[in-house]
Target: CopG family transcriptional regulator
Amino acid sequence: MATKKYTVTLPEELAEEIRAEVGPGAFSAYVTRAIERQREHDRLGELVERLEGEYGPVTDADLTAAEAERREIEQWFAEQEADTPARRDAAAA
Model:
């Protein structure tokens, strides 16, 4: 991707804190990733607005059901990962 230099004004304390964490050579990459994440967040917000406009707001019951499903999926993946070494051992035998 082509790059172009821009001048932005940041709070000094925040900028120095980030520079100390990532080093001076990685500062631009850090800021780029932060902007990309913000753009993704903004787009997700737009999608939520559009979907809620079409289907209505998300209810507490919807959130509870989605959270339960997420936990089930995480559990399934955890079980698959735990089972993988056993499969490798059985296949090697």
Q: What stands out?
A: The chain has two domains: 9-57, 58-93. Residues 44 and 64 are 20 Å apart (CA to CA). Residues 9-57 form one domain.
